[in-house]
Amino acid sequence: MTAPLLVLTLTMILIAVQRLPGVQINRPAGALTGAVLMLLATDLTLEQASAAVHLPTLALLLGLMIVARYLEEGGWLRGLEGGLSRCAIHAPRTLAPTVALAAGMLSALLMNDTVCLALTPLLTRVCLRTGIAPIRPLIALILGSNVGSLMLPLGNPQQAFIALQAPMTFNGYAAALAPLGGLLLGATALVLWLLPLHRSDPIPACNPELEPDAPGRPNRLVPLIALGLLGALLAGADMTLAVLTAAALLLLLGGASPDRMLARIDWPLLLMFAGLFVVMEGVVRSGAPESLWQTMAPWMGGEGARPLIVLGLTTLIGSNLVSNVPFVMLAAPWIPPFADPQAAWRVLAAISTLAGNLALTGSMAALIVAEAARKQGVILGFWPFFRVGAPLTLLTCTIAMAWFI
Description:
- The chain is mainly alpha-helical.
- It has 20 helices and two strands.
- 73% of the residues lie in helices and 1% in strands.
- A two-stranded antiparallel sheet has the order 1-2.
- Helix 3 (46-52) packs across helix 14 and helix 4 packs across helix 9 (157-165).
- The chain is globular.
């Protein structure tokens, strides 16, 4: 049991730290390194590792990335830039809550990671051109995209995994969690509106390199295919198959070069998830999750509110220790023994998502925004985010648990 836990710890360190003296490392490389070490240091075989990689989840993520890239390519998200610019000029206090609401609603449909990739440069341009300090709006982008992604199973990777594992239909998931996600997104926007503006926040000089790329010629089929995808999901179609069908249609009919569009897919993100699947399979086979479950079983067993509260607290802590996606993979075997497994899945989905707002390192969306902003001369530090994110996380998690029990 020791070797798999050591490999897991090292993998999480590599994913979180990313900077080691004399070593070039990033998150996908850290996950792949962890997978290889798990194969070398334990009795996990290549066949077992291959079987552990959950292809429906990876296929769903790939399809969502393709759909989002085609919408971005045609300039269908560009109209948001003008709206945010007017908001920044005429009502700067409302910029952060508006960003949170817009990012949250988009993230529910297009996955928060892809929304953050698309909106960070757009939002940075708006702030620098209008003289608004970008830190608060960037924090709002992270908070809103994470909270809003709770509403639908397409919102983030761990929710896609949970929806396929539970299993939950698209409509079943939406009926259970969309009202809660909408409530929490509204609460997030309200908190951001109530926070005082800090006029002393630094405003970097506008960089001419921040000019947006010229959008491709709009193809009217792109939004029609996206709407068709939404209709298919609402009609109860298999999520992975529906998303892949839309992605294939876009590659054929979307108007842009498939080579160019596929080159813009975040393949390293898919590699990271594949590596994490292998790492977590080694941990599961070591018996560590079962041992932890046996320790927690007296608290998580039985009916009533206590099992769900303990699961929620464990998820909040665990998601910030090992990140939310690995924790969800680790905790998935715990859910079937619950008296009400569907309620437990919903708690796991909600709290693991909301926990990502506690700290800047708590979610992939936050790290994506911080890295993209850094490339444009805006430094989003740990403490400015923590001062807003930590209290909001505790508030939203408390509301969520009250909702469930």
